[in-house]
Amino acid sequence: MVDPGSSAPSAAAHRAVVRDSLGVGIATGLYGVSFGAVSVAAGLSVPQTCVLSLVMFTGASQFAFVGVVAAGGAMWSGALTSLMLGTRNTLYGLKLTPLLDFRGWRRPAAALLVIDESTAMSVTRDSRDLARTGFVTTGLAVFVLWNLFTLVGAVAGNLIGDPRDYGLDAAVGGAFLALLWPRLADARNRVIAVSAAAVALGVVPVTAAGVPVLVAGGVALLAGVLTRSAGDRTELPGP
Amino acid sequence: MTWLAILGAGAGCYLLKLAGVSLPARVLDHPVVERVADLIPVALLAALVAVQVFADGTRLTLDARAAGLAAAVVALLLRTPFLVVVFTAAAAAALVRLVVPGW
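YS: structure for the whole thing
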């Protein structure tokens, strides 16, 4: 392992990180077109859709917000769901900060770029310089393209007529499944996922639209706390 | 109202990111924090898949969206990129509706 920041990585290593980061950035940014189309299909205007991508800038939360609204849920339940999903970016930030060590104005600017992809392209590097290159290149590429293609999708979505004819309502379920898929490699996550889906569907008939997803989030909170008490028995007593 | 929710949720999501790059990293040392933070996206995304596909407001339904989801599973098993998965789900549902109008 290279000590972070001690030796300059080779120019070739640098180029490889930039190339990989741009590839991820382009692939991710392109699917902003599906967010834009789904969002206007949910009833949001083109400016509202674009502001979501600019300010919220975290795909799963954005899809959740418009998904809940499209299903007839209250705005507040859409907002709450997007915030709950946004908590994982807090976790990413905690892991990234010692590695990237941004100071001053760069820290609040970098915060906006903390998303799944920029984190993934950064935390695996073995020097600070390469970690920063991966983070900034991926983050900026996704930010620029995601916002550009959100606008393209929103404008196109407004022009095509009934979104159901194009299966856009089914596209949202596919998008969530694709975001969930990599996490299903873990056995405990599969149990949580099936339980959460069952609980959500179970309460659909008795709660307002949007609430079932929040109830499922509560299941995760409960599971997190309960599995701790079961798994910590062998731990040494600590402060 | 819509603007308020959009700006509120957007600002909130940014503040969650800012908290992550501002808080001391030892917050992560607490096992419950890390576990809950890992589980919440899994539970929410799974619930969103279920509700987006099998619910219509407060009713449980089975329609063309289920075909879209099945197609998305196949696309994911074939390791296609995100955009292809989303497009496949939409195309499958659209195709089913073309054959069975109103489904």
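YS: worth flagging: The longest helix of chain A spans residues 128-159.
IM: good catch. Also Chain A touches chain B through 102 residues (CB under 8 Å).
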